[in-house]
Amino acid sequence: MEANKKLGIIIGKNTRAIVHGITGTQGSFHTQLMLEYGTKIVAGVTPGKGGTQVQGIPVYDTVEEAKEKHSANASIIFVPAPFATDSALEALENGIKTIVIITEHIPIKDAVNVMAYAKDVNATIIGPNTPGIITPGESKLGIMPAHIFKPGNIGMVSRSGTLTYEIAAGLTRKNLGQSTCLGLGGDPITGLNFIDALEMFEKDPQTKAIVLIGEIGGNLEELAAEYITKNKYPKPVVAFIAGRSAPPGKRMGHAGAIVMGKAGTAESKIEKFKNAGVKVAEKPNDVPELLAKLVSA
Amino acid sequence: MKLFEYEAKNILTKYGIPTPNGGLATNASQAHEIATKLKPPFVVKAQVLVAGRGKAGGILFADSIADVEKATEKLLSMQIKGIPVRNVWIEEKVQIKKELYFGITTDRFNQSYVAIASTIGGMEIEEVAAEAPEKIIKFLINPQHGFRSFHARHIARKMGYAGSQLSELGRIFERLYCVGMDYDAELIEMNPLVETVDGKFVAADARIIIDDNALFRHQEYKKRLLEGESELSPQEIEAMKNDLAYVKLEGDIGVIGNGAGLVMATLDTIQYYGGKPANFLDVGGGAPAEKIATALKIVLSDPNVKALFINILGGITRCDEVARGILEAEEKIGATKPMVIRLVGTNEAEGKRILTEAGIHVLESMEEAAQRAVEISRHGGK
Hints:
The structure holds two protein chains of two kinds. By secondary structure, chain A is of the alpha/beta class. Chain A has two domains: 111 residues, NAD(P)-binding Rossmann-like Domain (Rossmann fold, 3-Layer(aba) Sandwich), CATH 3.40.50.720; 153 residues, 3-Layer(aba) Sandwich (Rossmann fold), CATH 3.40.50. Helix content of chain A is 34%, strand content 22%. In chain A, helix 3 packs parallel to helix 4 and helix 7 packs parallel to helix 8. Chain A is globular. The two termini of chain A are 25 Å apart. In chain B, the strands form five sheets. In chain B, strands 7, 8, 9, 10, 11 and 12 form a six-stranded antiparallel beta sheet that branches. Chain B has a four-stranded antiparallel beta sheet with strand order 1-6-2-3, covered by helices on one side. A four-stranded parallel beta sheet of chain B has the order 14-16-17-18, with helices on both faces. Chain B contains 13 helices and 18 strands. Chain B folds into three domains: 72 residues, Dna Ligase, domain 1; 125 residues, D-amino Acid Aminotransferase, Chain A, domain 1 (2-Layer Sandwich); 146 residues, 3-Layer(aba) Sandwich (Rossmann fold). Chain B starts with a helix and ends with a helix. At the A-B interface, helix 4 and helix 5 of A face helix 4 and helix 9 of B.
């Protein structure tokens, strides 16, 4: 394989990331884990803590300084919800084009503003409320436990964290490695959606098949199913939808996971996927088997 | 967080949106007093947050003040879908010419807010969308410019109005958008928005759902929610205070897990094997032992629970912390119910050691554990 060839999608060897909130418990802990995994974390930002260091990484008061001094091109945000919007907008205003927002509980109104700005400047937002993104064996911008992943050809895209780990671990046990695993985030308003991920995985030569992990709430799964049909999507897709047993009107942990009236049910999503020729697993543990059949066929 | 109709209407009134004259009563004498200030005929409406209130008999009509008192007493003695009625809202009955719909909600695909209007009101907007999609007007709001008066007038015109009626409708729509933004509403709607026989517009019913994640900006409502004036069960309130996501369900298998998606999938797997989950409980990421113990306490306080299924996939969450939390809870409240524990991931070996030494068996497969929990619940928790 060529030395400079990019594996998977969005992140890679040229990703140079700033950690926002690097001095916090989570920020500092995950900076260490990302460094150990080989991610190029080049700087941290915590207003008021400029001039210090965390895990040997220099900390700045502003994104502007961090970006200028280290040619950073990505951000990962651990800042608490009331301040995370400011942090994301600061990254965008300073020309950062890939931003992962780990933070949970960001208000919808704030997320809407961040996404509008990102669209304007053509930046990619992953999250909020996401485990992040990992290209196994190469790089990760996120909080996922790296040891359950292994390099391979399966692209994964999901709205949840631990459920994704559950399924990824199952794939790895079956020797089905992953090209990139992308967490969209569990909130109603997120940056990337399933269709964005499908488009990127289609263009990625490394990815041979896709696992799509959805859940109740919203209609992004239904739109993905329509997209697959309309574009005669060329790569096999296996889906799992969480929340078959969820009652309407109850928010199942994630801000985005709620059945409102008849909208957003698991049945609707499963039916649309089946009609689009997507194999839908009944249980998380069924995903690797369904996928193995498709990949070997 | 859902607001009561009377809260929503009071907010709308404050923003200059016409609503029927009315007042809130918790007993018949208050109802009497309110009714004397209103013009008959009256409507008496149970203040509950469950959907389908009208069909469940929660809305009564009254022609006289005596009838208002009777209706109030009747409603206050009722339970609607298991929820006792604590308050009624009494208002003047609107003389309806036409029922309209106007609301603002989020559009996930376009990452924005969307205004939805229809000349068919008074029924669920999803039903209108399914039965008469051509009667739905959707207007995507550009977050950088907001929803302007001219946008609102554009929608009023599309609904078939002109002149002063168009202006007034536009004004109401624009005001509703302001309420929505100021209150961080993830959904705000007037349904029906009534065109009266004399050509005026009145929001005859209003619904506001505040984005839970924005409640820190709306402390007065957060306070009301936690003080029990809500549709939440005692377990749900306790969970909220402890930063745990808990949802009460109808079954008998208590569930605790880490991560919303994983917990949902756990409930689904239990159901797949023929069991019924008693609750959803997500301890979140990196929960320390005390939080696990609190989670156990909350789930076990539900008398329907016959068996407990703990499903942990350690990432940020450490299995040894979970194990310590389980033992801590056992010590404090006693091992009241049989437990099935599935524990894998970060510090798995240590977690297993702690539990095994305490005589608790730990499983590795989620499916096996789910099957075991279903079996136990079938045998009445033995």
